[in-house]
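Structural prep section.
Before we set up the soaks we want a predicted structure of the protein with zinc ion in place, mainly to decide which crystallisation condition to try first. Input record follows.
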Amino acid sequence: MTTRDPLTVIGFDLGNTNLSAAVVTATGKVVSRWREDNPRSEGAQASLRVVEQMLRRTAEEFPQVAAVGLGFGGPVDVATGEIRRSHHTEGWEGLRLGEWVGERLGLPAYVDNDANAGGLGEACFGAGRGAPSLLYVNVGTGIGGAVIIGGRIHHGAHSNAGEIGHVVLTPEHGPVCTCGKRGCVEAWASGDALGTAAWEALAADPKRESALRELSAGQVTGRAVSETAAKGDVLALEVLDQTGWYLGVAIAAACNVLDPELVVIGGGVSEDNPAYLQAVDRALRTYGTPPVAENTRLAAAELGYEAGVVGAAAVALQALGGVE
Ligand SMILES: [Zn+2]
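Run finished without errors. Recording the tokens verbatim:
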């Protein structure tokens, strides 16, 4: 006798650079995966045309799918599935993305912020399996986060819980954030911030040796800093230590309030980046209250490049009551 997954859904990740669709089972297994460039410079309508095409083709090829889960890279009103804002492209504001997809596919569609989806994905199928509560932090170009309590996303009163990237650490000084405020965690510790911090460190001491000097300003990205640090470059390691420390200070504060079992760090900057994660861990042990400092585990995310689609699928699976 063959066993069948009771539920299969489409997980769709509307990322800044890529649009990704996957067919995912109730055990988190990716059956099929598909990615296209996001034509975001042409506006939201151009992106939506590609989204529709990808969803229709996936639903035709896999008629057994029961629902669609969507992760969007910006604030979402989860009660209505409405996009509040996109930080990168005009034209998304006010779109009821869940309804928009539901009408076109004839399937129930559930929308959440991509960091919330990523956190739920890790809680259901990744590093957070079995943990009753976790704080998820995604460090990429920006910094997003999610609070998972009792295996469910805690959205808060205004669909705003988990926004650790915009916790202000230094209101009177420090870099200006994408949100317009000064001294946010995202402005100190994101992938973009890493590149900026490295460039400033090079400019501050022109005699200081570093392999990063071979690069032009635009090439000193978070990825370049991490790769250079992995080869033992002292300046790059110092930058990772400083930026990771800032993130750790904010994580310690969040843990003092929430007291989660586990903190999971995901996103491009955290992958294969021990220096950054060690700095986060050190700040967590320094600024966590004693029960937090001694007991709260810090783990790297496990879903890697599939985090976006698996997380979006988890949103749909959970809405249908089907996560195993
Ligand atoms: Zn901010």
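Observations: The pocket of zinc ion is lined by residues 166, 177, 179, 181, 184, 186 (CB under 6 Å).
Flagged for discussion at group meeting.
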